[in-house]
């Protein structure tokens, strides 16, 4: 019926052994991403959004356990793929941009070597071609004196520059899918706008699919086609950006949206909304609604597993209130 | 084309007038700070002007926002205000009195910092009560019994349960840690808090709680804040006035509402344009800033902003604009005109 999604994730679960049991960090996450589509995963620390992205890339820490009903890139299952096959995909057709550039840049190699490595590994190109591409991309992410930067080591660059080197590195092979974990959070607003611009351009021109993990609701609103809101290891609401922002259904989504100041809309000096409380511990068998403890609308019925209630094409919410409304309708 | 005489010609004002309500809480007069940086092997060193002839007032009871890109000198400026770094030239006045390096302790009693990262700014081996009472010990304030009481009161003030007093930072959430950092700043009952990106490292729902707390504390205790942030929505929410910094200089100071309604400096305009409000379908604005922030070691000629300015003229390349101080605040741009005095 429809095209094969570039990324298919179905019932993804990630658990980690910790003191006192098993931490069920990702508890059954499902989503599809089509070519040329931007999916934003929104959520706060501990909601499992970063582990979700690492699980897709096959980059989880060794002690973590991954299970999924399906995990496929362009129709090709990523589960059971050989490490070699996975390496062939990563950095070439799918790339990842991490939040913390220092953890993913090698301090012992120059920026140029690391940038060019991706292209030299995956494509039959000459060093000078790889070098030219590296320079062009550094310029596109707003780095001046790009040629000189190639000879520098990561520690010689500021945090903002390193982050942009990471982004350039992810783009080297012209990937079809980029998974980016808070790619612009540490950057100045001006650079952020510029990099988001570049990503949108690549999406338009090359059909790049993007999974962007962020807690910045401004970024989400401006670049997402679809949004998945995560809380306590689960997707609690999905929809288009317009649906999520104009008609949020889950109490957590509503709470989050009330927390941010918006020039011209929130009144300066007045209290912002808040979501009191903290995220629940996901150690052991946790089955109830994860938001129950913080939810102003919580009731007894929330103390059991809550499924996603479909509200329309690509639109769903995981809340007991939606279940009862649906039953009433 | 000389601008009108400034309301407050810094160097002419007598230094030791009796403080009045009008006396600024904190004042920088022609403050500069240079760093010697190496140009590279065998190339000698050069001066980097991190802060370049800044005159700025922090009025009693106000929240002054300070915005600008990384490397513009915001943090150097805050370190000078905190007394952690002497200015290369110029004067810092606290309550109308000049403060020299020797008065660091006196200054620390009145001006306290809140830093960005509550994960790295708290000693992981100390309990909350040790962290919060440390300033009291350093300044030898109160007997040990009194200190415990003051710490408990301060924890109440920032909305932390007293039972956390014996906890370690590692046992707390990010929001709680930032509350501890605020409690540590408040325990000396300072008049001014320098908040450097106080919520940038926090989750959205926690950020709003800390912003609400900062607002409450300011109202209850009559505090004065300098709020350094790259989140302009946060600045708009908290600040009464905003100072915009570019390459070591303050290029605009305006009341917050006026700045957001109509910035006077093209750089302020570009910064505001890059704020991403949560409006789906609006796309990402083109700030038209061009590529990079200039290298502060080798600043552009004339107006330092001219290479990125869409309205730049030959004059902007050749000559640095005069500082216009008028009824609306301050602006440093060849294209700006002095605001008419209010009738």
From TrEMBL, chain A:
User: What InterPro entries does the annotation carry?
Assistant: AAA+_ATPase, ABC_Ni/Peptide_Import, ABC_transporter-like_ATP-bd, Oligopep_ABC_C, P-loop_NTPase
Q: Which Gene Ontology BP annotations are present?
A: peptide transport; transmembrane transport
What is the annotated localization of this protein?
Cell inner membrane
GO CC entries: plasma membrane
Arranged from A to Z, the UniProt key words for this protein are: ATP-binding, Cell membrane, Membrane, Nucleotide-binding, Transport
Which segments constitute the ABC transporter domain? 7-257
Q: Name one GO molecular function term.
A: ATP hydrolysis activity
One Pfam family named in its UniProt record: ABC_tran
Topology in membrane: Peripheral membrane protein
Q: Which family does it belong to?
A: Belongs to the ABC transporter superfamily.
Designated name of the protein: Peptide/nickel transport system ATP-binding protein
Q: Which organism is it from?
A: Albimonas donghaensis
Taxonomic lineage is: Bacteria, Pseudomonadati, Pseudomonadota, Alphaproteobacteria, Rhodobacterales
UniProtKB/TrEMBL annotation, chain B:
Per the record, the major location class is: membrane
Biological process terms from the Gene Ontology for this record are: peptide transport; transmembrane transport
List all Basic and acidic residues biased stretches: 9-19
Record flagged with keyword Secreted: no
Any GO CC annotation of this UniProt entry: plasma membrane
GO MF annotations, alphabetized: ATP binding; ATP hydrolysis activity
Keywords of this entry: ATP-binding, Nucleotide-binding, Transport
Topology relative to the membrane, per the entry?
A: Peripheral membrane protein
Instruction: Using the UniProt annotation, give all residue ranges assigned to the region (Disordered).
Output: 1-24
Supply the Pfam families for this chain. ABC_tran (PF00005), oligo_HPY (PF08352)
Annotated ranges, domain ABC transporter:
26-272
Q: Which SUPFAM superfamilies match?
A: P-loop containing nucleoside triphosphate hydrolases
- Highest rank taxon of the organism: Bacteria
Cellular location of this protein?
A: Cell inner membrane
Q: Which InterPro entries match?
A: AAA+_ATPase (IPR003593), ABC_transp_ATP-bind (IPR050319), ABC_transporter-like_ATP-bd (IPR003439), ABC_transporter-like_CS (IPR017871), Oligopep_ABC_C (IPR013563), P-loop_NTPase (IPR027417)
Stored NCBIfam families:
oligo_HPY
The entry sums up its family as follows: Belongs to the ABC transporter superfamily.
Q: Which PANTHER family match?
A: D,D-DIPEPTIDE TRANSPORT ATP-BINDING PROTEIN DDPF-RELATED (PTHR43776:SF7), TRANSPORT ATP-BINDING PROTEIN (PTHR43776)
Q: Name the chain's protein.
A: Peptide/nickel transport system ATP-binding protein
């Amino acid at each position: 019926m429809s095209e094969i999604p570039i990324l298919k994730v179905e019932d993804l679960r990630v658990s980690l052994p910790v003191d006192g049991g098993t931490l069920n960090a990702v508890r059954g996450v499902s989503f599809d991403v089509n070519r040329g589509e931007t999916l934003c995963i929104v959520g706060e620390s501990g909601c499992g959004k970063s582990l979700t992205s690492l699980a897709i890339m096959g980059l989880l820490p060794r002690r973590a356990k991954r299970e999924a009903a399906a995990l496929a890139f362009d129709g090709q299952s990523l589960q059971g793929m050989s490490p070699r096959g996975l390496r062939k995909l990563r950095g070439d057709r799918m790339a990842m941009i991490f939040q913390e550039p220092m953890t993913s840049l090698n301090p012992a190699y120059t920026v140029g070597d690391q940038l060019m490595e991706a292209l030299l590994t995956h494509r039959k190109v000459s060093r000078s071609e790889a070098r030219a591409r590296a320079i062009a991309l550094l310029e596109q992410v707003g780095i001046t004196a790009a040629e000189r930067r190639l000879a520098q080591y990561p520690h010689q660059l500021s945090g903002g520059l390193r982050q942009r080197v990471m982004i350039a590195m992810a783009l080297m092979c012209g990937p079809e899918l980029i998974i980016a974990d808070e790619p612009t959070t540490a950057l100045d607003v001006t650079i952020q706008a510029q990099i988001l611009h570049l990503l949108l351009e690549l999406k338009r021109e090359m059909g790049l699919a993007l999974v962007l993990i962020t807690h910045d609701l401004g970024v989400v609103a401006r670049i997402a086609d679809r949004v998945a809101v995560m809380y306590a290891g689960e997707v609690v609401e999905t929809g288009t950006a317009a649906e999520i922002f104009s008609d949020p259904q889950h109490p957590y989504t509503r709470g989050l949206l009330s927390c941010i100041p918006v020039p011209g809309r929130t009144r300066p000096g007045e209290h912002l909304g808040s979501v009191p409380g903290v995220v629940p511990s996901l150690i052991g068998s946790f089955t109830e609604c994860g938001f129950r403890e913080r939810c102003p609308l919580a009731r007894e019925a929330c103390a059991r597993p809550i499924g996603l209630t479909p509200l329309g094409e690509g639109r769903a919410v995981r809340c007991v209130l939606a279940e009862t409304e649906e039953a009433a309708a | 084309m000389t601008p009108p005489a400034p309301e407050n010609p810094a160097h002419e004002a007598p230094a030791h007038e009796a403080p009045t309500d009008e006396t600024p809480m904190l004042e920088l007069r022609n403050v500069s700070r240079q760093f010697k940086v190496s140009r590279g092997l065998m190339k000698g060193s050069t001066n980097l002007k991190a802060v370049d002839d800044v005159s700025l007032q922090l009025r009693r009871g106000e929240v002054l926002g300070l915005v600008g890109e990384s490397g513009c000198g915001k943090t150097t400026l805050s370190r000078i205000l905190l007394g952690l770094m002497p200015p290369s030239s110029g004067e810092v006045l606290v309550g109308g009195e000049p403060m020299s390096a020797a008065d660091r302790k006196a200054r620390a009693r009145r001006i306290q910092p809140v830093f960005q990262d509550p994960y790295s700014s708290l000693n992981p081996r100390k309990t909350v009560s040790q962290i919060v009472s440390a300033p009291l010990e350093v300044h030898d304030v109160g007997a040990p019994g009194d200190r415990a009481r003051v710490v408990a009161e301060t924890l109440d003030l920032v909305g932390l349960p007293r039972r956390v007093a014996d906890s370690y930072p590692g046992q707390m959430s990010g929001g709680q840690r930032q509350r501890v950092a605020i409690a540590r700043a408040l325990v000396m009952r300072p008049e001014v808090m320098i908040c450097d990106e106080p919520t940038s490292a926090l989750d959205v729902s926690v950020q709003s709680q800390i912003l609400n707390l900062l607002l409450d504390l300011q109202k209850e205790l009559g505090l004065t804040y300098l709020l350094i942030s790259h989140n302009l929505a946060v600045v708009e929410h908290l600040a009464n006035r905003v100072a915009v910094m570019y390459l070591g200089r303050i290029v605009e100071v305006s009341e917050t509402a006026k700045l957001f309604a109509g910035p006077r400096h093209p750089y302020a305009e570009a910064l505001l344009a890059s704020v991403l409000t949560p409006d789906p379908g609006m796309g990402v604005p083109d700030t038209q800033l061009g590529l990079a922030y200039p290298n502060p070691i080798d600043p552009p000629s004339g107006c330092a902003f001219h290479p990125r300015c869409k309205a730049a003229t030959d004059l902007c390349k050749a000559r640095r604009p005069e500082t216009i101080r008028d009824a609306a605040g301050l602006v440093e741009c060849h294209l700006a005109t002095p605001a008419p005095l209010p009738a």
